[in-house]
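Exercise: predict the structure of this protein bound to zinc ion.
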Amino acid sequence: MKEISERKQLTILQMNDSHAYFERHPEYFWKNGEQIYENVGGYARIATILRQCREARSGTVLALDNGDTIHGTFPAVHSEGETLIPILNAMEFDAMTGHWEFAYGPEQFLKVANTLSYPTLAVNCYDSKTGKRVFPAYQIIERNDMQIGVIGIAATIIDKTMPTSFSKGVYFTLGNEELPGIIRELRDIEQVDLIVVVSHLGYPQELQLAQEVDGIDVLLSGHTHNRLYDAVVVNDTIIIQSGCHGSFIGRLDLEIANRRVKSYQHDLITVDDSIEPDPEVNALVDKALDPHRDMLDTVVGHTQDALARDRVMETTMDNLLLHALISVSDDAELAFSNGWRYGAPVPLGPVTMNDVWNIVPVNPAVSTCDLSGIELWNMLEENLERTFSRDPYQQMGGYVKRCLGMNMYFKVENPKNRRINELFVGSTRVERSKKYKAVFITSQGVPVKYGDHRKDLNIRAVEALSTYLRENSPVSSKLEGNVVPI
Ligand SMILES: [Zn+2]
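Solution:
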C-alpha cells in the first residue's frame, strides 16, 4: 500500500518521580562495580533541557510529568506542595498525573492542580460519593498538525496501602478496564493521531498493562525509579521510565505517519553540570528555598558511611533511621519503617537538616505497639507479597519494609505467604504467642490491623533522627543482614 502521508516529528520529554528535589543533589551511579555519588539534577537544569529542545524542534515537543513531583523535600512539604507551582508553570509541562501529590489530602492536591497552567490527568481516580472522575481522564494536545491523546493514570495504591488521609473521599482503580474505551473514544471519535499514556502504576504493572491493552502508542512509566537506558516495546507500545529525583530526563523522538509511530529514538539524559541552569527557574528555586536555607544547611552530624536507599532488601539510610527510632523508644526491641524509594543518598561526611528532611519528609510521629510473634510473621509475609508478587497488579509495596532487631531469611521465588524460612528476634527464633515491643513510623511501617497498645510517642521522626545524629556522630551505618533472601 502506498504511504499517503508524510512522516511528522514529535518529541516527548519525560520527567518522573522528581520528588521536589529543587536543586542539584547527590545521586548514585555505578562505576567499575562500585557505587559512586555525583551531584546532578535541579529544576533549573531540567528547564534548560526543555527549553533547548523546544527551540530546536519548534512546535513538536510534548513535556509530560508522571507525578511524585510536589512532595519529598522540606520546602515542598512545608507549603503542602504550593511552593512548586511557579517553578512547574515556568517549565510549561503539558500534563501530569499523581501519587504523593495526594499526601496533603485530595482537596489540597486539587487546589494545587487548579493553579497549574496544565492539566492533571487521572483516568482512575473517582469521587467516592458521586463515582465521577476527580480529574479529566485525558487531554487532546495539538503538536505539529497532529492531535495527541494524552491519558493519565494516577498511582492505584493510594487508597490501598497508604495512610487513609491520602484518599479522603476518593478511590482509585488500576485504569486497565477504563483504558480500552477511552482509547476507542480518542481514536474513533476524536480522531487523534497518537495515544500517549502518562502513568504512575509502576514499571512491572505498566508492562502488564501494555500487554493487555491494545492501542497505546507510547507509555511513560513512573513510580518505581527505573533508569531505562533503552526504550522497551511491548505489544507495539513504546515504554520509557527515567530514574528519579529529577536526575534524569527521558527523551523520545518519534516519526509518525498514518496515525502510527514509524520509528523512534530514545535518550536517557543525565541532568549534569554540562547543562546550564535556566536563569528564570533558578530565580524561582531560590525564592522557594531562601526562607529555609539557614535551617536546611545546619549540620547536625557526620556519617562515616554513605547513607543510601537504593536497595530493595535493606539500606544504610533506613538502618540509621531505625536506630534513631529505637533510641527514643525506651524498650522496643524491633523497629519498622516503610520501604520508601525516594530519598537522595547522603555521601559520607557532614549530614545537614536538609538531608534529615530528605530521609523522612513526612515527619510522622514515632509510634510503638506490641506485636505477637504470629502478627510479626504475617505482617512480613504480607509485605513480601506486596513487594514481590508474581502478579504485577498485586505489587503494592515500595521496597521491602525496613526492619531492625530481627533477621529474616526468605525465598523471593516462593508463593504468597510461603516465603519466610526463618525469623529471629534478637538471637532467638520468633515465638508465635510471645509479645514483642516495636517502634515504628506510619501505618506503612506497621499497618493498623497489627499490634496492641498502639500509641504515638511525643516525638516526631525528624527530631528523633536529628537528635540521634547530634548525640552519636560520627555515625556508622552498615547493612546488618536484617532482611536476607536465600
Ligand atoms: Zn510513586
